[in-house]
Amino acid sequence: MHRIFIVLTISILVTACTLQRPSENSTLQSTSQHSPILVQETIPTSEPDSLETDAWQVIDDGLAWRVIEPNGIAFAQMNILRIDPTIYGFRAVYTPQDPKFLGDWESTLDDPVAIINANFFESNNTALGIIVSDGIRFGDRFRRTGGTFIIENGIPSIRGNITQPYSGQPVEQAIEGFPLLVENGQSVHTSNNRAQRTRRTVIAQDSQDNILLIVSPFLGLSLPDLSQYLATSDLDIVHALNLDGGGSSMMSVQAIDFRLGSFDPVPAILAVYKR
User: Fold this and answer.
1) Taking a C-beta distance cutoff of 8 angstroms, is the pair 199, 245 a contact?
2) If DSSP codes are grouped into helix, strand and coil, which group holds residue 241?
3) What's residue 155's pLDDT?
4) Which of 6, 14, 167, 202 could make a disulfide contact with 214, Cβ separation 3.0–4.6 Å?
5) Domain ranges of the chain
């Protein structure tokens, strides 16, 4: 498939991606372990010329791709991979001792269909929240915030940690994030702070039980605006969960040779494989 390489040089305020663990007695109020820095960065992305519309395009059996500009804001662009979970499976991978950039993840894993970054993490690369990789559990779950993407008996779901908490039962895979953006089709994250815009990574589930992987490579919407947009868009989203954004956002989609690299190495990813 023909590739068009778009190289954009932009000056953006990159919000650091490692956050303090949230208090059990409050909603998440975390601060970066690193001061935000102004970065002059060259960001390579690749998009097939046939996919430069906001309509869904089938790129492989059970996979569809869409690029949209929320509310007409070009720098809030969302790149979205829609996955049929009856055709594709998911695997969480966690290497706190060896965080990796996208190219290293691609060379380490066994030919995944897609990769996206997962949990927030501490400065020592320890994941915040739980990760379950091939049935092995790491970390402690959030009890008063966020949500969890879980593969249980081969079936993926996104669960709010307050309304449907993970109780520790054996599951095949799981990643955790915050905040929960959409639950039962409704926007559930509100805040007075609409100023903070940065790269975003989101995992969502639509009414047909498809899984959506979403990245905003430039200056994504603020979290309150993102929550509202996802709930009211035509993406038909039932549940949506924010994952680590900022310098950690990464995605690769093999079928269209799309690659968005992270600024920072990350210790946790979610990989997609054909069943």
Assistant:
1) yes
2) strand
3) 97
4) 202
5) 4-274
